[in-house]
Write a structure and sequence with these properties.
single chain, alpha+beta, Nuclear Transport Factor 2, Chain: A
Length: 150
């Protein structure tokens, strides 16, 4: 009996530990990016809002269903990569992430590779990390099918 109880306790601790480790600023940012590239319907807006706080959450929440669908479903964006370039812990409740996001956008003849470098402020609220603010630092656009003149 003691052996089984010990095993149950080990499994419980391991399960809790895994959940705490999943609650990192980088994982939350990654979850938001994945959610934004995989929007299928208006109900996905709530999933995204759950990862936001403050003005960032407010800006998304006031979008109409039409605005939301146009921005996240009708655009022809295909996720490429997400790289966390720097993570700076400001305090136990705040972390700054510098990241690079790349994706493809547009139709075949106007297809572009877009790379954005951004600074994200993450805050720990209500038992989880939330995106408080995102600022663009740099963006490059490479048109993949365009001819260029010398």
């Amino acid at each position: 009996m003691q052996h089984k109880l010990g095993l149950v306790l080990i499994l419980l601790v391991a399960g809790c530990t895994a959940k705490v480790e999943d609650q990192t600023p980088a994982k939350t940012l990654e979850s938001y990016i994945q959610a934004s590239f995989n929007v299928k319907e208006v109900q996905d807006k709530a999933k995204m809002e759950n990862l936001l706080t403050g003005d960032t959450k407010q800006r998304l929440s006031v979008w109409s269903d039409e605005q939301f669908l146009k921005a996240f479903v009708e655009t022809k964006k295909k996720f490429g990569t997400l790289k966390i370039l720097e993570s700076k812990k400001v305090s136990d409740q705040e972390t700054l992430l510098t990241y690079e996001l790349s994706f493809r956008e547009g139709e075949k003849d106007k297809l572009a590779q877009i790379t954005q470098r951004k600074l994200c402020t993450m805050v720990f609220l209500d038992g989880g990390w939330k995106i408080k603010e995102v600022r663009s630092q740099r963006e490059s656009i490479e048109y993949l099918s365009e001819l260029s003149l010398p």
